Amino acid sequence: MDVSVAAVVVLLGLVLLRWGLILFGALLILQPARSCPACFRATLPIRRPVLNAVLPVAEWRWCPACRWSGPSLKSPSPATPSHSEKVEHWTANPDR
Length: 96
Hints:
Elements: H1 3-29, E1 44-46, H2 49-54, E2 58-62, E3 69-73, H3 83-92
Antiparallel strand pairs: 1-2, 2-3
């Protein structure tokens, strides 16, 4: 292996290590948020395909009240009943 090829491989490895450390640090800083950090009102998730491909655990959120937007960790969504559970509930209570 030539010295210049080895130098390129080492430098590329250091750049990838640096990106990995930055990504790890960003994930440690991000918090799950459903409310705006500026006005404390509810925020809406924004679809960003590139962000979902790179960081599937993060999402971009937007506040319609103060127009804040920023990243956050995906928080677990509240449990919603499935279609079959709704049908079973309705058939169990025909008085409704």
